[in-house]
Prior knowledge:
Two copies of one chain form a homodimer. In chain A, 35% of the residues lie in helices and 18% in strands. The first copy, chain A, has 385 residues and is of the alpha/beta class. Chain A has two domains: 4-116 and 210-224, Thiolase/Chalcone synthase (Peroxisomal Thiolase, Chain A, domain 1, 3-Layer(aba) Sandwich); 119-200 and 236-380, Thiolase/Chalcone synthase (Peroxisomal Thiolase, Chain A, domain 1, 3-Layer(aba) Sandwich). In chain A, the strands form two sheets. In chain A, strands 3-2-4-7-1-8-11-10-9 form a nine-stranded mixed β-sheet, with helices on both faces. The longest helix of chain A is centred in the middle third of the chain and has 16 residues, at 141-156. The interface between A and B is large, with 63 and 63 residues. Strand 3 (75-80) of chain A pairs antiparallel with strand 3 of chain B, so a sheet runs across the interface.
Amino acid sequence: MRDVSIIGIGQTSVGEHWDRSLRHLAYDALAAAMRDAKLERADALYVGNMLSGEISGQAHLGSLIADFAGLRGMEAIKVEAACASAAAAFRQAYIGVASGLQDIVIALGVEKMTDDVGSRLTAGLASAADADYEVIHGITFVALNALIMQRYLYEYNVTREDFAGFAINAHANGAGNPNAMFQRPISKKAFMKSGMVADPIGLLDASPMADGAAAVVLCPTDQAREFTDNAIRVKGSAVATDSLSIHDRRDPLWLQAAQDSAQRAYRQAEVTPEDIDFFELHDAFTIMAALSLEASGFAERGQGTRLACDGEITLEGKIPITTRGGLKARGHPVGATGLYQIVEATQQLRDEAGDNQIANARLGMTQNIGGSGATIVTHIFERVS
Amino acid sequence: MRDVSIIGIGQTSVGEHWDRSLRHLAYDALAAAMRDAKLERADALYVGNMLSGEISGQAHLGSLIADFAGLRGMEAIKVEAACASAAAAFRQAYIGVASGLQDIVIALGVEKMTDDVGSRLTAGLASAADADYEVIHGITFVALNALIMQRYLYEYNVTREDFAGFAINAHANGAGNPNAMFQRPISKKAFMKSGMVADPIGLLDASPMADGAAAVVLCPTDQAREFTDNAIRVKGSAVATDSLSIHDRRDPLWLQAAQDSAQRAYRQAEVTPEDIDFFELHDAFTIMAALSLEASGFAERGQGTRLACDGEITLEGKIPITTRGGLKARGHPVGATGLYQIVEATQQLRDEAGDNQIANARLGMTQNIGGSGATIVTHIFERVS
Lengths: 385, 385
C-alpha cells in the first residue's frame, strides 16, 4: 500500500444557494481544488452525496459531475452513507490511491438541500435512520437525537445549559470563517432562550440545513512534491458501522462506531488522543459533540460536556473542536459535510486558517457521522513539512 | 497491487418478492455467498443500489445490511451509479482487496422495485438521466432509449425485426435458469406482435422491473485456495463515463464509455475480444445489446444486430451473450443487475451453469450500463483451475 497525501482543497461557501444548481456547486468546489493542486486532469472522482435523488430527481452524480467539470470519460462513482457520505467518498479515494490503481484522485462532497425544504427533505433526512423500525412510527431525525439527549440528561445528571459551550464555541469560530453560513457569535443567554425544536434540542443545539460542496485532491505522498510544498499526509483512515436503530444498540449513549473507527485510525497513525492537536467532529446536534468526544477517547463516559463547560474545546483549549464553525455555524450540507471537515483540517495543518489558526498544529482528526451513529468515518492528518 | 479472485457467490431469484423486504433480499444473497465461500466474517461490504431512498425511504444501506446480516461493526458503504450500481460496488470491492487494505470483501447488489410501481418508480428510473437537460421535458427512461433505437433504425437501415434475436436468445436462456423471472421461450411471432411501449421499443425489447439481490465474496488470489478449489480470477476491471445527456455526446449511437472501459479491461487482461468465450451484456433494451456489442469490439459499427440475426449470440455461437437470460428474461432489479451478471459469469467459469453451460468456457466478460451509457463498468474473469 502506498502512503497518500492531500495536494489540493476547494470549497463553496455554505448557505442557501438559490442561484447555483447541484452541478454548479460541485463544479465550483472541484475546480477550486484542481486549481489549488495546479492540475487539469485526474484519474478518478468519488462523489459523496445523500439526497440528490429525493430532492433534485438526480441520481448518477459521478458521471454527471465528471462531465460537467470537463473530465468526461474518467472513472467516477457516487458513495452514500447518509450524513457520512463525504468522508466515505474520501475513504474510497484514499483506497484508490493507496492501492496503486489510481494516482490523482478527487474526493468531492455536494448537497443541494434548499431545492426542497418541505416534506421531502424531512423524509429524506429520516432515511438515514431505520425506515422499517424507527421512521415508520413517524419520528423525524431531530426527534431521534432528542431521545438520545433526553436520556443523556437523565443518566448523567447534566442540564441543557451544560451543552451551551458547544454552540457558543462553534459560532465563535464560525465568525472567523468566510465560508461559514453563520458568522456571528452567540451568547449563552441566546442559547438558553432559543426556541425548542424537539425537547430537549433547542434551535441553537441544531446545525442548519444548507447547500454546499467541498473537494480535495489526493496523490501518492512520494509524488506530492511535484504539485505542492504543503502536502498534508493521511496518517489514519477508518470506517466502522453500528445498527441504524438506536434501540438495537447495547448502549444508546455510546457511539461504538466512533470508538471503533477512532481506535483503528489511532493504531494506523501510531498516535493516541493526547497527540491530536484539534478535532473536527460532527456536531449535527450538541449531544453528538459530547458523545463523539467520549467515544473517541477525549473524555470519560458522561463527561463530554465538561470539556465544553471548562473551555477545553476552544482554539486555545486542550482539544479544540469545530475550529472553523463546525456543522453548527459553518452549516451542514449533509452529503458534503465530511469533506468540509477535511478541507478545514487541511487549512489548519497548512497554517491557512486565518483568525481560527491553531498554533503549531501538526496532527488533526476529523470524524463524520452517518445517521444517529450507524456509520462513522475517522481520519487523522499530519503536516509533513 | 494484489491479484483478486471470487471465492463465493449468492443470489435470490428475480421477481416480485412481495413477502421479502429490501433487507431480507440482501441478507438472502449475502448469506448464500458467505456459505458458498465457507466464511462467517469479512473485512468490508460494498452495497450497490439505486432506488432505496426513493422507493423504500431508506438510505444508508451499507450499515443497515451489515448489521442485519450479523456483521455489525464492519466497514460497509453504498455505491451508486444508476443501473451500473452493482458492478460499481464490485469494482470498489476489487480495489479494496487489490490495495492490500481488505482481505475478505463482499460486493452485494440489491433492489426492491415493487414496493412502489407507480409514479415514484418511473421518476426514480428517470433520475439515471439528466434531470435538468432531459427529464425536465417529461421524457421517461424507456423513451430516451426509444430515441436512440429510432435513430439506429434510420442510420443503419435495419428494422425492428432485426432485434428479435436478442429477446429470443435471452428468453431461451432464461428457460434454463431457475432464478430467472421469465423461464419460457418466446417466438419471433410473439416478439413482433408484442405491444409498443415507446416506439420503436416493444414490450419484448424491454427488460422487466423486478426485485432481487446478488452477492460475491472476493479475496486475494494467493489466499483463495484456503477457501475453494474453483476460485475465479478477476483479470480485468474498468469503469468509464460519458455525458448523461444523449444530445451532448459526439455520436448518440456509440457507447464511448463501453469502448473505453472494455479497452482498458482488455489491456489489463492482455486479451482481445476474440479471446472472450461469453459476454454478459446489459440488454435493458435490445438496442443496448446491439450498441454494447459494437462498442466492445464484437461487431462493426451498425452491425450489432447481425450477430443476433445470424445466431452468433446463442450458447453455441461465436460470442454467446445473456447466457442465463440477461436483463430481458432473468429480470432487471436495477441496482443488483451488475452482480447478477458477475454471479452468472462465475457459474459459467465454474461449470455450474446447468442447461446453459458453455463448453470449455475459460474467459468471460460482463458489462453493466448506467443510464443511457453514462457509466459503463466492464470486467473480465478467468477460470484458474
